[in-house]
Design brief:
By secondary structure, the protein is of the alpha/beta class. The protein has a domain of 153 residues. The chain contains 10 helices and 7 strands. Strand 5 and strand 6 form a beta hairpin. The model has no long low-confidence stretch (mean pLDDT 96).
Length: 290
Amino acid sequence: MRKYSQFACVDWSGAKTERPTGIAVATMNQDGPPSLLAPHPRWSRADIRDWLLKLAGAKTDILIGFDLSMALPFFDMNAYLPQWDASPTSPRDLWRLIDNICDDDPHLGSSSFVAHPEGKRHFRHSKNHIGDLFEGGTGRLRVVEQHQRDTKQANSASCFNLIGAAQVGKSSLTGMRMLHQLDGAIPIWPFDPIPESGPVIVEIYTTVAAWAAGLPKGRSKTRNRAGLVQALKTLGSPAPARLASYDDHSTDALITAAWMQQAAQDERLWKPPAMTAEIAEKEGWTFGII
């Protein structure tokens, strides 16, 4: 099992604006403490893509976690987008489809995909606007998302739900555009083999890190220095420099970066028993779920 010299968490956002308040990036090395990368005025999704390409060019030895789903469900219906002739059969083809349809959307947005005559059929857009192929209830889930729920390791939402505070659809679709534009520059676990050196991307769920840091279920956010310092202490990490603002995006990123330093050394997390080769190929997996 390879080791990494640096770790990063990207708390992602699917908001329509160019520089969403919901994007935060925290990094740390083996000695810690974690720290925020805070460009002026704020991160854009294109900034994140370009930062990743620089890491790839420099062959930086870093493990990068993204808080988004990197594929849509496939195995429940043997298709990502059933009843659509253009439905892809691989994650990378799915990313390409989304990015191509949204080519004119600014800021790596995804509005055109969820408004597409075929695409919109699969999503819950609002309380009174629900696509005819949306499955109802929670919505379709990937194998890892259903497994998280069944084992109570997390409480993932469906990418096909676009409403409510817990929705992850918009962030995941914009994230898939970004992954496509990386064009293979950085290996993505578990879709790709892990190289001996250089950057690697994984999907993470910041709530898993928060629970590991001692934050209670149902209240997995901290918005003050005392809570952040205690969470990092639980993970064995020193306290960071004082922040200008203790919003939950920043604290999520800092806590998760510290957790990743520990989790990366746990071989079980790289070989979860429930993740078959077929699941890894079609749907991917959330790092940290076993």
